Amino acid sequence: MRIACISYYLPGASQMGPGYQAHYLANALSGRGHEVTMFSPSPQPADARYAHREVDVRPPLRTLKFAQALRRLPLREFDVVHAHGEDYLLRFGGRPVHVRTMHGSCLVEALHARGFRNRLRMLALGAGEILATLAADHTVCISENTRRAFPWCRTVIPCGVDTDVFRPGGPKSERPSILFVGVLDSRKRGRMLVETFVGEVLPSVPEAELWVVRDAGPVEAPGVRCFGAVDVETLAELYRRAWVFCLPSTYEGFGVPYVEAMASGTPVVASPNPGAREVTREGQDGVVVEDARLGAALVELLTDACKREDLAARGLERARDFSWERVCQQYEEVYAGGVR
Description:
Number of domains: 2
Strand order of the largest sheet: 3-2-1-4-5-6-7
Strand content: 15-25%
Structural class: alpha/beta
Order of helices and strands: EHEEHEEHHEHEEHEEHEHEHEHHH
Largest sheet: 7 strands, parallel
């Protein structure tokens, strides 16, 4: 099939999760023999296996200008238009088939957003998401949790993870280690994890380390190591070497880092946000705890090798549900259902 993919974000220009998912899905579809072209204002990533057409939009209001620019592009030349955002102005009448993936709900995120302007922006983006579900021929949600925000949408296809990159192997770190991937001062709550680590974990496990990845600045706290932004290979190695992965977010529409950790053979500890609960199957394949028990749960895992091994095995089995092969097969069924 000839597939046009649409994504405002792509790796390299942004750390936004939907951009990574759009990129890796396009790569996986290209690897399965489809002719894929990505339309985006972001530059083409170095590892892209697909054709790329950069859409020039200038500030201010770049996302709105991108949505308007899409209407002038030759998208009718394709069998499928698969959008990951900003497609609410498109109308094709069934040819090509128009698929939209919802990577979460901005309306739900608005509830957790900090600051009036940021919350207002999330509400505006949420209105665009609702319009997009009405414009598309087929809307796909990345989780049952996301689908609850769009109850008229029927299809759930999860995010994918490259299980050839994120895989177990090699020794764990010599010192007990907890890996955190995300921003300290956000709904990811890295700052809270640092405080829990210093106040509750270190007194019980003095040799433990907390590894922080992808935050901009250093953290002045005992036992904390900051790696900054790292490439995929380094990130995968950190996942493999860590004893435990912890992401205590208040909200995740899905939670790709949980799956990346599971696929790497590392047990997961999470707060009971909707994405973590779904990915871990309500705590069957990871530890899901309230804030009051987070420190105790981390100490228990760092000091109990048998429990770590059990959770790692469960997580590894669960991660197979999110391989790109399985995800692509499900999307191909959606495409085939609309292409005549």
